[in-house]
Amino acid sequence: MSNFHTLDIDFSNYHLVFPYAIGTLLVVLLLAMGIKKTVSAVSARSAESDAAKARFRFFDADFDWKKLFGTLACTVAYVLLLDPLGFLFSSVLFVFVISLVFKPKFTPRALIGPAANAVLTPLVLWLVFGQMFDITLP
Prior knowledge:
Layout: H1 17-47, H2 50-53, H3 65-85, H4 87-102, H5 112-132
């Protein structure tokens, strides 16, 4: 490294930098959220009665578990399907299924928007970045 603001990376390995940077950032943010929650719980315990001190809850009482675990399952499935199915098809599946996880109604008319978004967004990204700019996609 000749300069602090530049990285010497081979072009063939250039696409590997961003996932590690985002993963590191996510871990740091997760640690910050955990520290904040722990500090607020400890400070709230000192002000509450003994009955309220008995139970510590990391999530709120009305937390939506379906969205959390649905998103985690979709993300893991997306990563696992990238290699066998390729970027375009696995991204279409991921966007559609993640839209279903966050969609409150499942009427056929309500699925038209998520289906169009699931097809068009990865297709446009693939055309612009993968074909026009020749950027390596996962």
